[in-house]
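[job 4471] stage=fold_predict status=RUNNING
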Amino acid sequence: MRKNISGGSPYEPIIGFSRAVRVGHTVHLAGTGPVGADNEDAAGQTRRIFAIAEKALAEAGASFNDVVRTRLYLTHAEDWEAIGRVHGEFFGQTRPAATMVVVAKLLNPAWRIEIEMEAVIPEDTVPGPSVP
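[job 4471] inference complete, writing structure tokens
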């Protein structure tokens, strides 16, 4: 069963995307930028992304503890440590597989970071059919 999770962007129906998609036990979080934090530094923008991601994951029935993969896209290589430290605040214990890539630009030129996540929800936390 598929569940599309909206982030409320007016561009979702135009572009044809969802903030997250849950299929079975897996949740795919789309590339998420720091909407509303354009004037923050790299760490502040990263924290904003985590706030957006937390809401979408929760709506999908997941949490940061379920995240198994992250992809971080940076526009400034020198931001890697500040961004990495924020990533570590959320994932220091779970330690998902992570990739950090430097790119030339993101959709919004003020954004220094965009993050994708994938989560796998343990089977014992997924409601199954009722047994009479």
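[job 4471] summary: The helical segments are 12-16, 42-59, 80-91.
[job 4471] exit 0
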